[in-house]
Amino acid sequence: MAIILFETGVKDVALEVYHLNTLGDEDKYNDFLKLLPPHPLYKKEILLFGKSPNEELKYFVFIYQNTVVALMPFFLRKVIINEIDTGFMDVSSPYGYSGPLYAENTREEVVQKFWKKIDKWYNNNNIVSEFIRFNMQHNWKGYNGEVNATLSNVCGSIITEKEQWKNFKPKVRNNIRKSQEYNLTSSIYHKNITADVIKQFHAIYVHTMRRNKAAPHFFYELDYFINLINTNSDICALILIYKENKAISAELLLLSDNTVHSFLGGTEADFFHTRPNDFLKYEVLNWARKNGFVHYFLGGGREDGDSLYHYKKEFFPKDKDRIFYTGRKIVDKDIYDTLVAHNPFCTGCTVSNYFPKYNCRRPC
């Protein structure tokens, strides 16, 4: 439920923009966040994941009839082409599932006012385009740009252990049996997670990022994860899979009222043959069931329908997918087209869904 913050007549309709850099900024952000429905992916430490050096974290607060009804974090980015700062900016959502966080029962006409206010701010601040990664709570509805169904996401119901096992694809059941033959064990940590446990997770995560040749801004020091987990101890859990006394697979889980979200993880390549990933998800399901959770959200692939998606789907073949939507908006078409024309990588580009196109870093 949204809370009235202002005396009558002080702020009937307003869009406010804030930085999210200092501790003082964070305190203000958290105060606003408390006024809206809880959501683990809107925590500041999680918003920073995947932030590149060219991105500045900010957020909008929309006030309607003296009440905070929406909050939207975003990255403000300089548009740089051929290593030259063009003087223009664009807006992109943080990594994962984001977009506006609305107060409960926010009416459609209020949503429309929110987006119109944002457009006005864009026009006054040299913003060329906007890319939104919407969350799974249908906050794409009412968006005044182009909405795209982008990825199918796997989210399964947590049911009885017997029925859950029966619903797995045969390959999953066989892999879990194999992991048990290798005598793998699991430990799930929630609240009061020690630095040593986080260190084990971090080592596996870093090894996995190196193996996958991830971009530099996805590598984080141990202190980042210690701060993330300790600051948000209620909504963070870690699962480690062990072969004897060695941690070989790990995942950071984010917890909402009834859902366990798979967030970040990794596996040591030398132990792929023991099938720790399947065992990890099986153990998360058992823990979640005992702790009253209703859904296990695995997410999607890197591209729609790829091998990663199909791997996740094998755990919940009977559950309906949830669709991840993205929003795209060209604020200034003339400037947008000029920027595209000045980027040599855009010449002859045939990838129609890349956005914003002027941001191409290699031939497409």
From TrEMBL:
<keyword id="KW-0133">Cell shape</keyword>
<keyword id="KW-0961">Cell wall biogenesis/degradation</keyword>
<dbReference type="GO" id="GO:0009252">
    <property type="term" value="P:peptidoglycan biosynthetic process"/>
</dbReference>
<dbReference type="InterPro" id="IPR016181">
    <property type="entry name" value="Acyl_CoA_acyltransferase"/>
</dbReference>
<dbReference type="InterPro" id="IPR038740">
    <property type="entry name" value="BioF2-like_GNAT_dom"/>
</dbReference>
<dbReference type="GO" id="GO:0008360">
    <property type="term" value="P:regulation of cell shape"/>
</dbReference>
<keyword id="KW-0012">Acyltransferase</keyword>
<feature type="domain" description="BioF2-like acetyltransferase">
    <location>
        <begin position="171"/>
        <end position="312"/>
    </location>
</feature>
<dbReference type="InterPro" id="IPR050644">
    <property type="entry name" value="PG_Glycine_Bridge_Synth"/>
</dbReference>
<dbReference type="InterPro" id="IPR003447">
    <property type="entry name" value="FEMABX"/>
</dbReference>
<dbReference type="GO" id="GO:0071555">
    <property type="term" value="P:cell wall organization"/>
</dbReference>
<keyword id="KW-0573">Peptidoglycan synthesis</keyword>
<protein>
    <submittedName>
        <fullName>Acetyltransferase (GNAT) domain-containing protein</fullName>
    </submittedName>
</protein>
<dbReference type="GO" id="GO:0016755">
    <property type="term" value="F:aminoacyltransferase activity"/>
</dbReference>
<keyword id="KW-0808">Transferase</keyword>
<comment type="similarity">
    <text>Belongs to the FemABX family.</text>
</comment>
<dbReference type="Pfam" id="PF13480">
    <property type="entry name" value="Acetyltransf_6"/>
</dbReference>
